[in-house]
Write a structure and sequence with these properties.
The complex is a heterodimer of chains A (192) and B (111). Chain A contains eight helices and no strands. Chain A has helices at 20-28, 33-52, 55-72, 83-105, 123-142, 145-155, 161-168, 172-190. Chain B is an all-alpha fold. Chain B is 76% helix and 0% strand. Chain B is built from four helices and no strands. Chain B has helices at 6-18, 30-42, 50-67, 71-110. The chains are: A mainly alpha (192), B mainly alpha (111). Chains A and B meet through helix 2, helix 3, helix 5, helix 6 and helix 8 of A and helix 1, helix 2 and helix 3 of B.
Chain lengths: 192, 111
């Protein structure tokens, strides 16, 4: 197994909706939405980036997601679905629209330039890691849409199976099965 | 004792990995868990540029300010809509009376 140089600060799954106080505050005063924006910017942007493979498209999708979330926030109700599942549902719709638009424009997916090497890493290791990263991202980009989404939501955004189910309109069990199939598919594609 | 399905066990192993710990898995799950570890390493959260972050933050603040409902804004909106209704009703009444006047005089002349 590979060691993780910088553990990503992902939240533990299924800990209840810790965002509710901030959501209530933003519903009472939209200026307080800033807290939620700062909390989720990296995750929404990361989701959009890995799903779209282009920084400009990801920025555009991120902007649309947060503007749509701010506009729809008064209608958010704490009825089972967590705020982050609700937010990623908006992000997913925005990304799907962007993908449809981009498909018409036909740009190349998954550019290079997002390998962030650790300082003092040896050059051979860096090259190997960059190659591995490229291979994984290329295989991820080739996955069917829903399988790619489940991998990104699970690994980039740390969403639980229950939350992924809420985003993708599936049961938690179906989300787990989807993740299992996605990883099997990805593993087969990466096999030499 | 209930037997958990492979997707359930895999999900639990992924959860453990994402929490920064090493899961104990059987031979069946080992290749997928190894891949999950690689994915957790490669697919890190991706921060956008600071300029984009600041620009969007400003735009959301402006949008938020526009959506803010204050008592003063409610009063002003109420006053404006009352005035708009008053102006509309008056204009309609004037228009009706101006349409009726020639018709009435026309009837009087015909008598």
């Amino acid at each position: 197994m590979t060691g993780r140089a910088e553990p990503a600060p992902r939240r533990p799954a299924d800990v209840g909706d810790a965002d509710l106080p901030a959501v209530r505050a933003a519903q009472a005063d939209p200026a307080a939405f800033d807290v939620l924006y700062r909390r989720y910017l990296d995750r929404v942007y990361g989701y959009a980036f890995y799903a779209l493979g282009d920084h400009h498209d990801a920025e555009d999708a991120t902007e649309r997601t947060f503007l749509a979330a701010l506009a729809a926030l008064p209608s958010f109700r704490d009825e089972g679905a967590s705020f982050r599942a609700w937010l990623f549902r908006i992000a997913r719709n925005t990304v799907s629209n962007a993908r449809r638009t981009r498909w018409r424009r036909r740009t190349e997916p998954m550019p290079d330039g997002f390998d962030r090497p650790a300082p003092n890493a040896d050059p051979a290791g860096l090259v190997a890691r960059a190659d591995e990263t490229r291979r994984v991202l290329r295989a991820l980009a080739e996955l069917p849409d829903e399988r790619r989404q489940v991998v990104i939501l699970r690994f980039v955004d740390g969403l639980s199976a229950r939350e992924i189910g809420e985003v993708l309109d599936r049961s938690p069990g179906a989300a787990r099965v989807l993740l299992h199939r996605a990883l099997r598919d990805l593993e087969a594609r990466l096999r030499p | 004792m209930t037997t958990r399905s492979t997707p359930e066990r895999l999900d639990e192993a992924v959860e453990t990995l994402l929490a920064g710990e090493r899961p104990a898995v059987d031979a069946e799950l080992r290749p997928l868990t190894r891949l999950a570890d690689l994915l957790a390493d490669v697919l890190r959260p991706m921060p956008p540029g600071p300029r984009f972050e600041a620009d969007l933050g400003r735009r959301l603040a402006v949008e938020g300010g526009r959506r803010r409902v204050t008592p003063g804004r409610l009063l002003a909106a109420g006053a404006l809509s009352s005035a708009a209704v008053g102006v509309t009703v008056t204009a309609w009444a004037m228009w009706r009376s101006s349409r009726r006047a020639p018709a009435l005089s026309h009837r009087l002349l015909q008598r």
